[in-house]
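Annex B. Sample input.
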Amino acid sequence: MKPIILKLAREDLKEIHEYLSKFGMNPQKKLRESFERFCTQVGSMPYIYAQYELNPEYRKAVIEYDYLVFYQVDVSTGQVKVFRVLHGKRDTLPLLSR
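Annex B, continued. Sample output.
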């Protein structure tokens, strides 16, 4: 099952791509491929990544360039919802509550 990418996560990915494009060497391609691998993995194994230690309501995956993907699994349907994609050096906890 393909994950649902929510609005804030899509906006995060767009901002990340714009930022990385400033550095050349097509880094956004690596990020896109890494994110696609994540989507494939959680689509078939939604519980593969650990719960986020600061907010166990979410699960957290690390992808290319130390970006973190925060998602939840709907227990009743097994559907994965991706909420945010943030750099690991950011204060992520307040951003998850937006």
